Transcriptional regulator, AsnC family (Ruegeria intermedia), 304 residues
Amino acid sequence: MDQIDRKIVRALQQDGRMTVLDLAEKVGLSPTPCARRLDRLRRDGVITGYSAQVDPEKLGFGVTIFVSVELEKQDRNAIDAFERAILRCDEVMECYLMTGSRDILLRVVAQDLTAFDAFLENRLMQIPGIRNLRSNFALRAMVKRDVLPVET
Amino acid sequence: MDQIDRKIVRALQQDGRMTVLDLAEKVGLSPTPCARRLDRLRRDGVITGYSAQVDPEKLGFGVTIFVSVELEKQDRNAIDAFERAILRCDEVMECYLMTGSRDILLRVVAQDLTAFDAFLENRLMQIPGIRNLRSNFALRAMVKRDVLPVET
DNA sequence: ATTGAAATGTGGGAGCC
DNA sequence: GGCTCCCACATTTCAAT
């Protein structure tokens, strides 16, 4: 991970479909070594994939909700079981294990409040071992960034 | 936005560097109309860009913090001013305006706690109009998804 | 060992039907 | 929505530093 690698990562976070030629020019390399570095970054798991960024509103996902979950037990098994269950919920875009009371924080997307209610009833609350839930609704996203602040 | 459009969006969220040929086959179209749909989806702002997905740990961003911000005033001007200020903070990956007490929720990434402290002192707390802050630390990400649950 | 250059096969874009 | 041509790109091989 030298400076050129960081430049590659930064450029591809900004434009994931950039051609190797453009990328090579941007980082000051010829295409061949640039492509090789790209392969290496993928093999090493630095770059885990490529994704189209989509406007959730345009696809009908008008609602973003943050759900705080407290488990009845906070041991390893309980957390692992919850993690396996939450991985199967496509509406959960992010899920973080938090410090403190070892709460869990979810970012959930839904088409509307009815759909979110259905998610709560039929999905989240079906997971055993949940002590309580607290939902906080987002009015809108002010910032949604996909580029880590990589220094170059 | 018909079923094929949704298939295109879904496929490109899963693999943003997929070629138009592969995409066309996947959605059951020939390449030309597939490329035309792709252009339209971009012009319409459904697809807003493409991005490489990166492992934050591998780039040294080991810390994720959620910061709740309460403003002194919650009127339009105060919120707009905060939004302009927060857009200039590269460490802020997400920022949502919340319901209720019109709190603001930030997801911040940092290299370590020292760097996060510097962000708090030199960046966030320099923004005027903040009544109080509350930081919650993530131990780890259980789920980090980039694919919206688009039905096809 | 890592870069740069050249050749080949494959993909993308603009016209047409 | 599908087809064809042309150019540009990616990938592989080879030579050079």
The first helix of chain A runs from residue 3 to 14.
